[in-house]
Specification:
single chain; 436 residues; mainly alpha; Growth Hormone, Chain: A; 18 helices; 79% helix
């Protein structure tokens, strides 16, 4: 009996030990925080979003506030001929977008390797210094060189899109990117308004100093408030050497989004060269032409700003590609009546609705690219998306100017509509063959 009792106690002890071990394996380890994956998003993603929203707003506002007084500043720098003033103003304005388009993929690649927060810190600090330095320019050549430097060293808004896209939970990506887009659009909308008021109060040169100071505040907020979770994918990116495209399993969705990004800015900017002349045909009072033209230019940005978060949230629910196709179709349809309006208020209203239609494109483009590429190279590919947008910003006015000069202003709207419709058909056909 004692022997049987001892055997029973040993058997029972082994069973209890096995049960305890299995129970310990089943329970989560609460001594260390759960690892954060890129699919679940960073635990700091909401705070990062609001800092990026503020930084995108301030940097774009400071970049665009010079639009109302740029010709005046060019004249102060020694250019006297009216034709030369217009030419140098165009060169100085376009210089920033030219270098930004070239540098965007490089900054995206470096963000993959060394962290997106560092990229935002670099961009905000360099832009604060470069924009402040514009207020110290003494020649038009210095102005152009500094504008080139702003584009080369900047890229805060594009870097913010990359950080938010890679740190936000995938189920909230569309809404979050829509919020960042709202900040960017609000900056582009209010920048010229602020630029029209500040020089009369503090002077042109001090306006640049104030713009640089506001961006420096964004630099401080980025440095001390943003928290970036570096995932395994980002650590692998630091060791990755070679083309990012080689790691993409299916490049067709990415190429489709790059084309869509180009169409987005092309559609928005194609009427820029003709807008004042076109409005002059619609407004009887010549003194109101400039004012109505400003409203037409701002209407699309205002519509996009109001609709972007809501369309982004809708895309999270029903699918980003469906929203891209619907937005392209809506923009294509809204461009047609713009060619036949008979009053200025009609054009303003149609541009407002078109801005709402275009609002869903940028967040969905970024979200689809993020879902289509490995996390290790997402910043690099999203950099190409920014370059495609800058390309649309440059080619849109060129296309509008050529078509308006040779075929009439109505053709600008109709040709842009055809391009948007073609983009919608292409995305619809491709979405049926691939899954993201």
């Amino acid at each position: 009996m004692p022997i049987a009792s001892a055997k029973w106690e040993r058997c029972q002890g082994r069973l209890n030990t096995t049960w305890i071990l299995k129970k310990e394996q089943a329970l989560p380890d609460t001594s260390a925080p759960a690892p954060t994956t890129i699919d679940d998003g960073s635990i700091y993603w909401m705070r990062n979003l609001y800092v990026c929203l503020f930084g995108s707003f301030t940097t774009i506002l400071s970049m665009t506030l010079l639009l109302p007084f740029l010709p005046i500043y060019v004249r102060q720098l020694g250019v006297t001929s009216p034709a030369a003033i217009v030419q140098w103003s165009g060169v100085a304005f376009s210089a920033t977008f030219f270098t930004a388009a070239l540098a965007a993929p490089l900054w995206g690649k470096l963000a993959d390797r060394y962290g997106r927060k560092l990229t935002l810190m670099r961009a905000s600090l360099c832009m604060a210094l470069a924009i402040s330095a514009i207020g110290l320019a003494h020649t038009v050549y210095q102005l152009v060189m500094l504008r080139l430097l702003v584009g080369l060293a900047g890229g805060y808004a594009s870097g913010a899109m990359i950080l938010v896209a890679t740190q936000t939970p995938k189920s909230r990506t569309g809404w979050a990117l829509g919020m960042v887009s709202t900040g960017t659009l609000a900056g582009s909308l209010l920048g010229p308004l602020v630029g029209g008021i500040l020089p009369g109060i503090v002077g042109i040169r001090n306006t640049f100093f104030l713009g640089g100071g506001v961006i420096f505040i964004a630099f401080l907020a980025t440095t001390f408030l943003i928290r970036e979770d570096k995932t395994i994918a980002q650590r692998k990116a630091a060791r990755h050497v070679g083309s990012a495209w080689a790691l993409i399993p299916d490049r067709r969705p990415v190429l489709a989004m790059l084309l869509t990004a180009l169409l987005l800015l092309l559609a928005n900017m194609s009427i820029e060269p003709i807008i004042t002349v076109y409005v002059a045909q619609l407004v009887a009072d010549p003194s109101k032409v400039v004012w109505v033209s400003g409203l037409v230019m701002s209407a699309a940005a205002l519509g996009s700003m109001l609709a972007a978060p809501r369309v982004g949230r809708l895309a999270d629910r029903i699918g980003h590609w469906k929203v891209v196709i619907a937005c392209l179709l809506a923009a294509a349809l809204l461009l047609i009546p713009q060619a036949f309006v008979t009053a200025g208020w009609q054009l303003i209203l149609l541009r407002f609705f078109m801005g709402m239609a275009l609002a869903g494109l940028l967040p969905c483009i970024t979200a689809l690219i993020r879902h289509s590429v490995p996390d290790a190279v997402s910043g690099n590919i999203l950099g190409y998306s920014q370059s495609a947008q800058y390309a649309g910003q440059i080619t849109g006015p060129l296309l509008g100017g050529v078509l308006g000069a040779h075929f009439g202003m109505r053709m600008v709207f109709l040709a842009t509509s055809a391009l948007m419709f073609g983009g919608a058909v292409y995305n619809w056909a491709l979405s049926r063959r691939v899954s993201v």
